[in-house]
Amino acid sequence: MSTLVEVRDLVKTYGEGDTATPVLKGLNLTLDTGELAALLGPSGSGKSTLLTILGTLMKPTSGQHLMLDQDLTSADDRELTEFRNRHIGFVFQFHHLLPDFTALENVIFPTAVKAGRETAAARARGRELLDRVGLGNRMEYLATQLSGGQKQRVAIARALMNQPELVLADEPTGNLDRESATQVMDLIGEINRQEETSFLISTHDERIAEICRRQIRVLDGSVG
Ligand SMILES: Nc1ncnc2c1ncn2[C@@H]1O[C@H](COP(=O)(O)OP(=O)(O)OP(=O)(O)O)[C@@H](O)[C@H]1O
């Protein structure tokens, strides 16, 4: 397995002076291609902070962040946006689907907007992904006509549009009942096995974490 992501001595402190809040305190972590890893840790331990940095949405205060052998710590905003669009997908606790649009439109719009147009290829990929996540018969449903678990499966399809090497998921099952949560995790596991996409999934749910092959625990600003 090859190394996909590497962070070394990662430090993140919010604020300055009296209000400075150190969150990550020299964290080291390596993720390989094709990993399925759970990110665990008490509330406030810095899981979301780490995911936000790994997603290139925020820079660390100090430390090194490499992905696909590129040094992202020294990249500028334009380079980071391009890198993120090509290589990283996101799934959040709340699906953030556009309510007045169909499942298919929700899957292809973010990519279409970034590309400046909606192509036939994007529509074909969107349809294929919705089939993959078991929503082939719901493509034309509006987001508001879908259940919570179905919406989250649309969000997973959306995250996969650009064939990212890494999908970062921040409590993707946090808002779902047990059965839907298990279905969403089974789906993530299946995609991970079939496509070699690495997943890093923050969760409070040990049952969800056990489904993952690796458990990464954040404690006191570093990985235990
Ligand atoms: N923008 C910010 N400014 C100041 N402090 C912040 C900011 N974002 C997060 N924090 C603080 O950083 C710490 C870590 O927050 P983070 O959201 O990363 O934790 P978490 O492990 O994801 O928590 P949870 O499991 O509750 O979602 C918390 O103490 C939080 O208050």
From TrEMBL:
Keyword Cell membrane among UniProt keywords: yes
GO molecular function, one term: transmembrane transporter activity
GO CC field: membrane protein complex; plasma membrane
Keywords, sorted A to Z: ATP-binding, Cell inner membrane, Cell membrane, Membrane, Nucleotide-binding, Translocase, Transport
InterPro entries in alphabetical order: AAA+_ATPase, ABC_transporter-like_ATP-bd, ABC_transporter-like_CS, ABC_transpr_LolD-like, MacB-like_ATP-bd, P-loop_NTPase
Statement: the UniProt record of this protein carries the keyword ATP-binding: yes
Domain ABC transporter, first and last residues per copy: 5-223
One Pfam family from the record: ABC_tran
Superkingdom as given in the UniProt entry: Bacteria
Similarity comment: family membership: Belongs to the ABC transporter superfamily. Macrolide exporter (TC 3.A.1.122) family.
Protein name: ATP-binding cassette domain-containing protein
Organism in which the protein naturally occurs: Devosia marina
